[in-house]
From TrEMBL:
UniProt feature, compositional bias: Basic and acidic residues: 66-81
Organism: Streptomyces olindensis
Protein name: Uncharacterized protein
Membrane-traversing stretches: 29-48
Keywords, sorted A to Z: Membrane, Transmembrane, Transmembrane helix
Region described as Disordered: 60-100
Length: 100
């Protein structure tokens, strides 16, 4: 190593001594583990951003089903007739008395 400067050789001696201090029996994830973790974190971030965009497009107002409303008014009319009372929505359902 004749071409190395004094500071480079000093740095190399420190790095070599640090490398000897590392336990050879210890298993670490290393660079590959970090890359895989970072890729998974980016994928989760992209999925959350996409989900947020799709959820903002959803219209949560529920449109009432006209068939269900007709069924409910018919049931209410039958219950009112059985009780002997006039149905509350007789004018709107078309089953009330004619006023003339």
């Amino acid at each position: 190593m004749p071409d190395m400067s004094a500071s480079a050789s000093l740095a190399m001696t420190h790095l070599v001594s640090f490398a000897k201090e590392v336990d050879e029996d210890k298993v670490t994830p290393g660079v590959l583990g970090f890359i895989v973790f970072a890729a998974m974190a980016l994928a989760v971030w992209a999925l959350m951003k996409s989900m947020n965009r799709h959820m903002s497009r959803v219209d949560f107002t529920q449109v009432p089903d006209p068939k269900a409303e007709q069924g409910e008014t018919a049931e209410q009319t039958e219950k009112a007739e059985q009780a002997g009372a006039e149905p509350a929505d007789a004018e709107t359902s078309g089953q009330g008395r004619k006023q003339g």
